[in-house]
Amino acid sequence: MSGLDAIDRHIIRALRANARISNTKLAEAVGLSPSACLRRINILEQSGAIRGYTVLTGNTSGEEGIAVIIQITLDRQTEDYLNRFEVAVRKHSEIRECFLMTGGADYFVRVEIESAGDFERVHKDILSKLPGVSRIHSSFAIRNVLASQKVRKS
After folding, report:
1. Using an 8 Å Cβ cutoff, are 30 and 14 in contact?
2. Contacts for 86-92 with beta carbons within 8 Å, 24 or more apart?
3. Do 108 and 73 reside in the same domain of the chain?
4. Environment class of 134 (CB within 10 Å of its CB; exposed 0-12, middle 13-18, buried 19+)
5. What is the pLDDT of residues 7-58, one digit of tens each?
6. What is the pTM of this model?
7. What range does the domain containing 127 cover?
8. CA 19 to the chain's CA centroid
9. How many distinct structural domains can be found in the chain?
10. Is 57 within the bounds of a domain?
């Protein structure tokens, strides 16, 4: 967030804490008039400092799903292999997040499942069929300690 002044950073912190805060309350919290605050938000959005807003949802049954963090290693790290993998990942709604990584694994992928049987299906029908995959290492989350979300505008 370089290039932002203290007020911009204050606006972003407040929106991260509560993206549904009214402009009037946000303006009051950061010490601006509502019109000046809205102008700042628009500039932050146009510059890409704020890339979008999202909703974090729970399971509709009232029970949390099980988060699985998966490290995926590809056969090769060529541009073609990376592109084919990334195109394939975007086709599966079960895959909630995917990060190109440095270090031991090429990608970290996050999926949410309802049960071990559900993960077996995701592993067999999706993960093992992604192009170029040579190794899959999965870890099940015990509980979520902190959840925040930043997404790009579509």
Report:
1. yes
2. 88/130, 88/131, 89/130, 92/126
3. yes
4. exposed
5. 998 999 888 888 889 999 999 999 999 999 999 999 999 998 898 887 655 5
6. 0.59
7. 66-140
8. 16
9. 2
10. no
